């Protein structure tokens, strides 16, 4: 390891692998290291043996669950929005040639004690139990307003200014009920809480349009998901990096981040070997997450926690028309919380578990001292649970941009069930590392379903 690199990347989570691939394409000499023996870091997909070894080291997996190799269970559940930013990166880098995708069958929202499908067509909207007859008319006018909006045509604005008026003002203009605001804000715009309502409406408008255009792309739901689990995504970007000369080392302990006399990054030590590089990028666990780092700087701060329950089911989720996959969002108002609860469910049709098995992951931001009780409303919707693995993960945020000392730290994965926040982090770190914006080429390549 005597060579000198432009960038050392630590951890093979999706964020780190996308950055490693993009920087390799830019012509940078990249070395990528991970202390784990598998790709994906916190966003890995594990087989049965790895799953039980991680959560219950003293218990072998039950034989009735089938073959080890049939499983690829995600540690962090997320779906890809069909016309979202991650799809644009996949298409821009042509990583789509290493992956196959399948659509998620339905998107649901919990309201008034039951789950209902988020309407994907006008026909579904008319039949939807989410709204009464008069509310449906008001909602139709609201969606027509959004679809017809043109920045340069004041006749489409109906007296509203998306950059100045709050989303509350927009909802009130169309007289939408609180329950309708809930499902638009949380199941379509995918906000985690209600803070967005008092802010200018433009970001919410962009998010709703993204959702409806993704829905229009495939029908049924706006989400797609890679066959064989989310762990395929980091591996595909690792392959991209390797094509452009990137070097990968799995199962490689990272013992020390070396800095020079001025506190700037100089290299990484693994055992008796040291590698020199100009910059380092890595996930928070490599930079003293949760403890003071060796040079006296705390490089990351804890910014809350996420509780996740990985549940193995022998049946689809009741009330989802026997869907082989779905997302269910429980808006916080419906269960007296500050943050939404997310359920993501996949099955053997996605090549992530044995036949007749379904994997559902329930997650939310922790608000109390009893996190497992907080996801109970989600667990209650699943029916009989065959087995369950609960994790509570701190959310870490870097304390500095890294531009001063060349140490660039990514963020932890949040509780959202989609990748848009991950891609925000990719754009942010890419700009700090290279000094320029990540510009994605527009290509006319369809993501194959």
TrEMBL record:
Record keyword Nucleotidyltransferase present: no
- Among the entry's GO cellular component annotations, what is one? cytoplasm
**Transcription as UniProt keyword:** no
User: Would you kindly state one Gene Ontology biological process term found in this protein's UniProt entry?
Assistant: vesicle-mediated transport
The record's keywords, sorted A to Z, are: GTPase activation
One annotated GO molecular function is: GTPase activator activity
Record Gene3D superfamilies: FAD/NAD(P)-binding domain (3.50.50.60), Guanine Nucleotide Dissociation Inhibitor, domain 1 (1.10.405.10), Guanine Nucleotide Dissociation Inhibitor, domain 2 (3.30.519.10)
Q: Which PANTHER family match?
A: RAB GDP DISSOCIATION INHIBITOR (PTHR11787:SF8), RAB GDP-DISSOCIATION INHIBITOR (PTHR11787)
What the record says about family reads: Belongs to the Rab GDI family.
Give the protein name, as stated in the record: Rab GDP dissociation inhibitor
Source organism = Coprinopsis marcescibilis
């Amino acid at each position: 390891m005597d060579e000198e690199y432009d960038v050392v990347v630590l951890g093979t989570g999706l964020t780190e692998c996308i950055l490693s691939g993009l920087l390799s394409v830019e012509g940078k000499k990249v070395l990528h290291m991970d202390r784990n023996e598998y790709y994906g870091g916190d966003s890995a997909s594990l087989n049965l043996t790895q799953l039980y070894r991680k959560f219950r080291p003293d218990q072998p997996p039950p034989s009735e669950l089938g073959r080890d190799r049939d499983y690829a269970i995600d540690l962090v559940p997320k779906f890809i929005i069909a016309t979202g930013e991650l799809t644009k990166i996949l298409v821009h880098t042509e990583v789509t040639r290493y992956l196959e995708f399948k659509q998620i069958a339905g998107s649901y929202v919990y309201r008034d004690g039951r789950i209902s499908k988020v309407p994907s067509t006008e026909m579904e909207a008319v039949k939807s139990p989410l709204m009464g007859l008069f509310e449906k008319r008001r909602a139709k006018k609201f969606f027509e307003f959004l679809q017809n909006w043109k920045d340069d045509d004041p006749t489409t604005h109906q007296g509203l200014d998306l950059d100045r008026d709050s989303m509350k003002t927009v909802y009130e203009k169309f007289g939408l009920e609180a329950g309708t605001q809930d499902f638009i804000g949380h199941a379509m715009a995918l906000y985690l809480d209600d803070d967005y309502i008092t802010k200018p409406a433009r970001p919410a408008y962009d998010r709703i349009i993204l959702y409806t255009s993704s829905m229009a792309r495939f029908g049924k739901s706006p989400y797609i998901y890679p066959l064989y689990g989310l762990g395929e995504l980091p591996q595909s970007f690792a392959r991209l990096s390797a094509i452009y000369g990137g070097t990968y080392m799995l199962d490689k302990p990272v013992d020390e981040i070396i800095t020079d006399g001025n506190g700037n990054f100089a290299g990484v030590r693994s055992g008796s070997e040291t590698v020199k590089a100009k910059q380092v990028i890595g996930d928070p666990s490599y930079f003293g997450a949760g403890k003071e780092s060796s040079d006296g700087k705390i490089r990351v701060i804890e910014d809350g926690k996420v509780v996740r329950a990985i549940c193995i089911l022998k049946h689809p989720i009741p009330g989802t028309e026997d869907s082989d996959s779905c997302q269910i969002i429980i808006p916080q108002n419906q269960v007296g919380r500050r943050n939404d609860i997310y359920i993501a469910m996949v099955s053997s049709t996605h090549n992530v578990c044995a036949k007749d098995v379904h994997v559902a992951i329930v997650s939310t931001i922790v608000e109390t001292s009893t996190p497992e009780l907080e996801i109970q409303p989600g667990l209650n919707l699943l029916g009989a649970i065959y087995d369950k693995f609960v994790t509570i993960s701190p959310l870490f945020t870097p304390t500095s941009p890294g531009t001063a000392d060349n140490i660039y730290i990514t963020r932890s994965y949040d509780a959202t069930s989609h990748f848009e926040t991950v891609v925000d982090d990719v754009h942010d770190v890419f700009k700090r590392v290279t000094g320029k914006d990540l510009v994605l080429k527009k290509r006319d390549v369809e993501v194959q379903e």
